[in-house]
Amino acid sequence: MLEARLASAAVLKKLLDGTAIKELVTDCNLEANEEGIGLQAMDNSHVALVTVQLEAGEFDSYRCDRNMPLGVNLGSLTKILRCAKDNDVVTLKASDDADSLTLLFESPNSDRVGEYDMKLMDIDQEHLGIPDTQYDATITFSSTEFARICRDLSALGESVKIEVDKQGIRFSSDGEIGNGSVLLKHSAGRGGAPAENKPKVKKETKRDPDDEDGSDADEEDVKPDVDEDDVKPEVDEDEEEYELQDEPEIVEDKPKKRGRAPAKKETNGKATKKVTACKTKDGDEDGEVGVSIILQQSVSLTFSLKYLLNFAKSAPLSKYVTLNMSNEVPLLVAFEFSQGHINYYLAPKVSLAYAIRDL
Amino acid sequence: MLEARLASAAVLKKLLDGTAIKELVTDCNLEANEEGIGLQAMDNSHVALVTVQLEAGEFDSYRCDRNMPLGVNLGSLTKILRCAKDNDVVTLKASDDADSLTLLFESPNSDRVGEYDMKLMDIDQEHLGIPDTQYDATITFSSTEFARICRDLSALGESVKIEVDKQGIRFSSDGEIGNGSVLLKHSAGRGGAPAENKPKVKKETKRDPDDEDGSDADEEDVKPDVDEDDVKPEVDEDEEEYELQDEPEIVEDKPKKRGRAPAKKETNGKATKKVTACKTKDGDEDGEVGVSIILQQSVSLTFSLKYLLNFAKSAPLSKYVTLNMSNEVPLLVAFEFSQGHINYYLAPKVSLAYAIRDL
DNA sequence: TGGATAGCAT
DNA sequence: ATGCTATCCA
């Protein structure tokens, strides 16, 4: 039995309407359980993976007795969410034997009530465990800037090379008409992205903050990297340790696995994760949000712009985006918003070589 | 000889450009006479009928010596109206032997004058007499809300069931992806739609206010149901009597007539009518306009959303829309604006059964 | 932010 | 030919 209430439909609408999820996959399970509502979907070509988590604690009220996989058609869900106005109060309901999900949209003063039942389907979806990876480079900056760069460079070529070093992050693309690159310099001295809009840094749903080594890392706890939590100016050396899950090896949907059935690995539970980047409280709220770069090691990776463009559509959800990269490893593009987060993983383009080899 | 002058082209533009008229019919007669300019058109499938009346008295100047049917192609008229700016002064001219209609568009300060001649055609159009019907349910509410509901529900299914009872009005639709419903609650205590923007409650063009039983109901008088005029909270009982024409029987284009030639009934003249819903002066001007429900009897009817979507495109003409319904009778969707009104009639879907039987 | 249009898919 | 999606414009 699920009953979850959100004060505003805006986030849900943005999540499904604007966003790239439904461009990656048409059907997928919403996983409702005590921790909240999650979603995991890999695109057909197995190059990209998206993960969403809405935290139970961030709902206005939340009740879910047991694990409930709600198989939805994302197009249908999108259509129905379009029937909500941004400031409508949303209630999601599903009974245990649910073959449908009920969405209730109430105007703030309740003089308009929309009730929508969406048929659910059985989706045999493997749930990937995504270990919490330590990345060599973590860059947090304006999400609209990110969208802008992807858009700009997509005018030139189909892929973008992203290079990060101590100086900054460089996006570059080549094509018939020429080539271009955008360099974002590390906002030295300033702390990069302010905490604002990267909501409540930690709001442990049920685990306590230091219980992070759980063998079954089904906790998608928002508790980050305590050390870089505050005003500490980013450094490029290696003392920026994330709290690491016990599985340092790389994501399931890694390039090498392409072409085969995706690894079914239920062990890690929901396995959403959050590599929260540094956030400092200092200034530049408004326009300039700064560029925060945390670097273990320089990285250089190439990605499909088509996917990044899609990912960037999530920009309305958050003022900031965090790019997490290690060489030869899928990029993680993470947006955090008040009720949760959305993470996109994208295999680097070199991976295609492996994939072809594997075929 | 017709010469009619409007201070602003905006209404004309909205009437023909945004609106659904030209989606229902391609050619039709504009009927100019002393009462103003009218239009009546039935769509090809004879399911929907639209009626427009521009009151002579609401023009800045109006002169029309005799009945003049001006056969226009609505696409052409639309194209020409697009040549007017919203605040242009419009003058319509046609001579008695007119085979063309002249439209004059003058900028407010007269430093730009556009003159357009549109070829007219002979259209052998039967003019339907539409008796003033007493409806079991009359609902007045925000026209944009109406448009929104039609749009939302059309994502789900092809038809909408409209149910009205004392509590409110419910629109619901079923389809493959699920089903949905929107309930608007009667704005109890508040007066429903404020008078504002439901223009000049009565502006008797030439008849005097109490001469409403005119056998030829060509008067489209806005004088309503005096009793419910003000702060009086709506009641659901039957004292809400409309002023009734002498023909209580039902509209010509009733379901049973479908498939045959529409009844030609010139007796009632133009036969526009107005079942003006209650309007009170009290509050909530801005966002919430309230929902006024006047109910003789609960109704439940099903309509094609495709048509309602079209009708709803007239929302820019008025802040309010009025739905008039009786069971088994065509719905009347009425918009009133400063210069007149536009009425859409739509046969309920049950009619299709009759229609098929009639075939 | 919402509406309109044009292109693509069914 | 129609409906839907995606992009563009107001």
From TrEMBL, chains A, B:
This is Uncharacterized protein.
